[in-house]
Amino acid sequence: MNLKELSLMLGLSQTTISRAINGYPEVNEETRQRVLKAAKETGYRPNRAAQRLATGKAGSIGLIMPVSPDHASDIHFAEFQGGLAEVAIEHDFHFVIMPARVEDEQEAIRWLVASGSVDGYYLAYMRENDPRIAMAQSLSLPFIVHGRSYGRATDYAFLDVDNEGAFYDATRFLLQLGHKRFALLNGPADLDFAFRRKQGTEKALAEQGLALDPAHIRNTFMGDEQGYRGMKEILSGPQRPTAVLCASTVLALGAVRALNEARLKLGVDVSLIAHDDELPLLKPENFSVPLTTTRSSLRQAGKRVAERLIAMIHTGTEMQQPQQELWKVDLVVRSSTGPAPAKD
Predict the structure, then answer these.
(1) Are 35 and 21 in contact (CB under 8 A)?
(2) Which of 82, 130, 243, 312 could be joined to 142 by an S-S link, Cβ 3.0–4.6 Å?
(3) Are strands 292-295 and 330-332 parallel, antiparallel or unpaired?
């Protein structure tokens, strides 16, 4: 099935069919769905080269894949990409993935834009006063940020989770259970989400005249082994915390292993709350003691970022007046939290 044949079958012009498939806003939704249904049923796929010549667009989203010799692949990155991919497939967009070290990311983004191989891109793993935002604003292509950059004006399109609010609420919940000694197993200290989660924890503690003991804070890659090592080190100290906050269920997996080795009962001797990105292979309810969590889906965030970026590519929306989305987080109470031990 080619474009001409599909045009004759539907009684629509070839231009209308192309615009419907490419998401142009002047094609009404009923016609768009009719075209997409027929294209799927007949196996029609637009010729990429011809499509690019006709529209001036590459039909691709650009992304930088962070690489580091310090750790293996990041399951959180993969889950977000899964959501992005779902929407990209629906709109017949491709990915152009460029691996880069942290110090080379700006150069990698400039190369992507200059190459003409992408129509837009997204930025992730935001840091304080992240220079990539100003650089992206100086370039000609649409972009959206997953996260935010502390210390910068929010004059850019972003989608973020209320990390500060999530850990503020989690800490307050534990305080209401009588806990006073807290530990925080967090992501890398230079990343915005980790900074905000620590800020939320400290804010709730300060309201009760308490503070995080620096000896009870760990900032690491969010892996099982890092969670295990961090929790084991903290437990070996002179004052064991009774409440633990983990920045991910992957960190919590390791932390729980260390607590089990120490013969500490979760929800009785130590209470633990983890942030749940709704990773399909690590569900908090499947832990031996189901985890209390702050919950927000990374896959849904990936889908939403893709939807907004593709809309920006097709219509130019948000280019002049970028929109900001801040998702609230649910606190889901399970068995890993309980009253502070009486002796403490």
Answers:
(1) yes
(2) 312
(3) antiparallel
Which residue has tokens 């016609």?
A: 31
User: Residue 339: beta bridge partners?
Assistant: none
β partners of residue 217? 184
How are the residues of the chain apportioned to helix, strand and coil, as percentages rounded to the nearest 5? 45, 15, 40
pLDDT in tens, 260-275: 999 999 999 999 999 9
Per-residue pLDDT reduced to its tens digit, 135-178: 999 998 999 999 999 999 999 999 999 999 999 999 999 999 99
Q: What phi, psi does 96 have (nearest 5°)?
A: -115, 105
- Strand 271-276 versus strand 243-246 pairing type: parallel
* Residues 229-244: b if buried by 16+ CB within 10 A, e if exposed: bbbbebbeeeebbbbb
Q: Where are the alpha helices (DSSP H) in 29-104?
A: 29-42, 48-55, 75-90
pTM above 0.90, yes or no: no
Can you tell me the distance from the alpha carbon of 276 to that of 274, in angstroms, rounded to the nearest whole number? 6
CA distance 167 to 344: 23
